[in-house]
Write a sequence for this structure.
């Protein structure tokens, strides 16, 4: 009876798994390649996965006794949940414990992007700071500006709550509302939606063209919500003032047109990356797995 942990996790979570008495197999620290994953899961009754592993029918075929897939992530888009349901395999995730951490990080991106922190940093390091200038690196005043929050789950709500401290007006969007109005009126648009077949390329070329000229886009949810090639065009054509992206369409790759744009702030999918939160997520994923395997 073995549990397969696809990648090395914070120690506390591993200790919890070892203490459960099950046979625990822990994968590598780095992203396992497909072969290694398929080989590693063989015969497992439980899988503890990360968002870097695609858990689909081929993986499930390798472990006919599989009873639970516990994803150490808020998102579930790396798992074929329908396929798991068809096979009676339980699927769980770790929402809640990363909400405030991700909301803080979203604000780090909003502030960093609209006040051009990285451009300033790069200027100084390049020895290109000519001395103070009245027109240099002008950004956007957040107070009085409008923040469009797409997706009002826990993280979207936590981002919106912080907006009042900055004196921003908030427009929130839930599926079913008019997206056009929120995009046309927002100075900053922040994405907080899960990736599903409905939300893939939610921001395509047409919808990006609805955004206010000179607006900013923030994405800390999932890369494929945005058509990256279309975003590159909107940025490089000067229609948008900037974008801050923590997630990408084909991670770890970034579309070349985005990399070329000077008005982007890029981070490597670290919105939930604090020591405490990553530990809480791993621990919750371990507990979810054990309680599902031990429960009725
Ligand atoms: C991170 O992207 C997560 O879904 O937890």
């Amino acid at each position: 009876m073995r549990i397969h942990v696809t990648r090395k996790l914070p120690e506390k979570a591993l200790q919890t798994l070892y203490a459960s008495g099950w046979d625990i197999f822990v994968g590598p620290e780095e992203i396992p390649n497909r072969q290694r994953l398929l080989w590693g899961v063989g015969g497992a009754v439980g899988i503890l996965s990360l968002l870097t592993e695609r858990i689909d029918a081929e993986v499930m075929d390798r472990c006919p006794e599989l009873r639970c897939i516990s994803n150490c992530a808020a998102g579930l888009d790396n798992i074929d949940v329908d396929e798991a349901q068809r096979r009676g395999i339980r699927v769980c995730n770790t929402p809640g414990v990363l909400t405030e951490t991700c909301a803080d990080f979203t604000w780090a991106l909003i502030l960093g992007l609209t006040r051009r922190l990285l451009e300033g940093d790069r200027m100084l390091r390049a020895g290109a700071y000519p001395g103070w200038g009245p027109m240099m690196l002008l950004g956007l005043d957040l107070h009085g500006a409008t923040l469009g929050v797409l997706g009002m789950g826990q993280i979207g709500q936590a981002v919106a709550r912080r907006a009042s401290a900055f004196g921003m007006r908030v427009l929130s969007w839930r599926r079913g509302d008019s997206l056009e109005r929120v995009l046309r009126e927002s100075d900053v648009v922040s994405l907080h939606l899960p990736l599903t077949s409905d939300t893939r390329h939610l921001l395509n070329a047409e919808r990006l063209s609805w955004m206010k000229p000179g607006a900013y886009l923030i994405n800390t949810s999932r890369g494929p919500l945005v058509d990256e090639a279309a975003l590159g065009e909107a940025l490089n054509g000067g229609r948008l003032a900037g974008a801050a992206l923590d997630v990408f369409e084909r991670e770890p790759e970034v579309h070349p047109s985005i990399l070329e744009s000077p008005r982007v702030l890029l981070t490597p999918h670290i919105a939930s990356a604090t020591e405490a939160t990553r530990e809480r997520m791993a621990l919750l994923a371990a507990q979810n797995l054990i309680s599902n395997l031990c429960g009725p």
In short: DSSP finds twelve helices and eleven strands in the chain.
